[in-house]
Every structure is written in C-alpha cells, then in structure tokens.
Amino acid sequence: MEYLNTISLIINVLCVLCGLLFAHFLFFAVVGLCKHKSYPEAKKTNRYGMIIPARNEESVISGLIESIKKNDYPQDNIQIFVIAHNCSDNTEAVARNCGATVYRYDNKEETTMGYAFKHLFSCIERDYGIQSFDGFFLFNADNILDRHYIARMNDAFEFFDKKSVITSYRNSKNYGKSLISGLYGMYFSTGCRLESCGRTVMGCSTRVQGTGYLIHSSLVKNGWPYVTLAEDWEFTADQILHGRAINYCDDAIFYDEQPISIPIMWRQRVRWSRGHLIVFVTRIKKLLSHLFSKETKNPFSTYDIITNCLPSTLFFLFLQAIQILLIVTAPLVDSQITWHQIFFGDSMNFLLSTGPLFAWLRSLLLSYLAFLANAIVIFIVDRKRIKHVSLSKKIAIALCWPFFIGIQLPIDVQALFSRNLRWKTIPHTDQTKFEHVNQEEPVVSI
Fold it and tell me: For residues 108 and 88, what is the distance between their CA atoms, to the nearest angstrom?
C-alpha cells in the first residue's frame, strides 16, 4: 500500500500545483458575480462600421441589420458592411435590400471567417478609407442587438479613450429551444459573468469570444491578418502582446443563435479546440517572453492569457494516464499489493477510503457538484437576462452542464489528432426578431 499511496501523493501534488496556475480564475469569478463595471454616458457619438461576415445567411441576416437600424444611436454615424463569403443563396440580395453595403467574395480555399474579414477590410480601405471610421463592430450574421447596445459600447469605448477593445455580453436568442442550445447559452453566460466581468473590474484584460466586439480603426489600418480556425484567440493574444487591453461592457447585450443538435455542437467545439491549440503553439513563446519583459505594462494580463491558452485538459489527462499506468503495474513492483487494494484501498467506505478508484470517483463527484452550482448561480444572477426558458429546461440544463464541460476532454483529444480541419457552415434558421429580445418586461415561463 505504501507504493500506491506514494503514487497518489505525487500525482495529487502535481495536480494541485497545476491547479494553482488557475487559482485566479476563481477570484475573478467571485468578483464578476458581485460587481460589474458601468460607464458614464459618452459626450461624443463616434462613427462606426458594422462588419458582418455571412455565408448562406439569407434567413437571419435581415434580423441583425434591422436591430442595428433600430438601435438608439444616430444612424448617420453608422454604416453596415456585409461580406457575402462563398454564398450559394440569396444572402447578398437580402442584405442589399435591407440597406447594407454588400461585397461578395468567393474562394473555396479560404473558408474561415478571418478571410471574410480580411477581404472586407481591404474593400473598405479601397472605397472609403479605414480611417474615415472611428471604430468597427465585428458581428456574426445571426446576431441580434439590444436596443441600447451601440450606445453602451460607445460609452465604454470613450471611457477608455478609444485605446481599448470592447467586448460585450453574449446572450442566446434560442436559449430555451433545446437542451444543447441551452447548454451553449450557459457556456457564454458563464464566460461573460465569471470570466470577463471580474477581469475588467479588477483591471485585467479579458478576451473576445468570437463575435460582438468593438475595435479602433487603427487596428486594421494595415488589414486583418487573423485567418486561422480561432481568429478571436489570435486577436486576443496579439492585443496583449502589443500592450493593449480588452475590456468588457456588461450593459451591452447581444443575442446569437446556438446549435441545437449534438453533431453540430461536437463539430464546432472540435474546431474551436483545434484553433485553441494552434494559438498555443504559435503564440506561447512570444507570450512567455512578453511576461518577463521589463517593458510589459500589465504582466498579470499576460500571465492570465497564457493560462487561458494552455491545453490544460490534455495535461491533466496525461497526469491521470501516468497515474493509471503506475497503479495498474503496481503488482509488478510489490507482489504483496492485491487488486482489491489497487481499486478500493484499505476500506470500502466511499468517503474515507484511500483507494485510487474511490478517490477518483470522489473527484468526479466534487467536480460535478461544483459545475452544477455554477449553473444554478448563473440562472439566479442573470435571471432577468435569460428569457423564455422554462423551469424544467433550466433544471435539465443545470444537471447536464457538468457533462457539457466534461466532454471537452475527448473533444480536445480529437482536436489534437485532427489534421487539415476546415471551417464548416453552422446552419442558422432561428427567426427571433428585434422586438422579441427587446421586450420591456422579461418573460420567463415556468
């Protein structure tokens, strides 16, 4: 038993030491639950370009354009740009009929959203000049904006003297459509409330999450260089490397459509994970160098993004695999060790046994309860924002949320060995309109 105990002790110490790298995540989560940062009303209304990449989005793009036009922000300071990227439907015509400035780009070899951004910014520079705009909003075609969205983002943009990238609260317009879409909604609610909110309150840079963010025009004066599977992660890492912050505006809310089926969910998350690994490989050396540079103004933001970029699930899997290998081969080292001791230790008491099997099961149970509590807290804190979700659906989402997080492990493993992974269209069909998400009183069915 001494051999087994030694193995468990060593692995547990390594796991604790690794866990300490992420201990600040808990601190930011608590701060984000207790406080958020609001910004004073800006005296200046800036001129913005609204960037919308679209691939076969004829059924939803009019909803986003309508929500932009119905925002309580001077419309003469807004220009809507749509890039119809490898489209085979009527997206281009629908967007143009809604009043957007539309460009078309067809290239079957350049399929990621980053290529759409790259081509569209080059067109804007050619026809208008990037510097004729103070900033650009980056959206997805399925988004819908809260009526105060642009004004609140403008407040934050001015508060930071236009020097900061501003990201916003990502809500779901089909939160209650299915269990899968509800779990996605929880994912982004958790990211905003437990990650971005606390970081901004404490002066640490956060990260952009795919869509719904505002950048200064100077950031794209030389074009858009981020074209991999995870252009948002690349963009985030490079902002911090260049000493620029990403701040969060909790009062600016937008809604987007989430997948409703397991195959689409799995495919999308594998792509996200693969992109995450690409950013880790391409940026980690520069980030580590930046962390220890005397010229770095906010080293903690650099440390934070490094820990975010780490493939932590794969590392913990490696530690667990080593532990299992050492435990299974224990009888070869000490012939007195029995299989009963290997699995159950010196006791059949689930709570007190030192056996590896019970210890592993206890860890799983504690993890499940922690993520279950996470979901319950989000539903309570953001109850006014999470609309049209029945009580039974909320219970199902909360109970399944730990599994939604847990399957990240096999997803990361698949992403690690996936080669030539390409961006594929995520179908959007939800017909939620501006009026539906901008009701004066939240409607929550029980």
Answer: 12
Same structural domain for residues 14 and 44? no
Q: Is residue 228 located within the same domain as residue 369?
A: no
CA-CA-CA-CA dihedral for 114, 117, 121, 122, to nearest 10 = 60
List beta partners, residue 246: 165
Radius of gyration of the chain (CA): 24
Domain count, the chain: 2
Domain range enclosing 78? 39-264
Could you read off the pLDDT of 273-297 as tens digits, one per residue? 998 999 999 999 999 999 999 888 8
pLDDT in tens, 85-131: 999 999 999 999 999 999 999 998 898 899 999 999 999 999 999 99
pTM over 0.85: yes
Picking from 195, 229, 264, the residue at the C-terminal end of a domain is 264
Strand order across the beta sheet in which 78-85 lies: 101-105, 78-85, 48-54, 135-138, 213-216, 165-172, 246-256, 144-145
Say if residue 100 is in the same domain as residue 189: yes
Looking at the structure, tell me whether residues 320 and 246 fall in a common domain.
Answer: no
Tokens found for residue 346: 């010196």
What does the DSSP assignment read for 206-256? ----SSSEEEEGGGGTT-----STTHHHHHHHHHHHTT--EEEEEEEEEEE
Of 392, 439, 24, 424, the C-alpha closest to 202 is 24
If one counts every other C-beta atom within 10 angstroms of the C-beta of residue 44, the result is 10
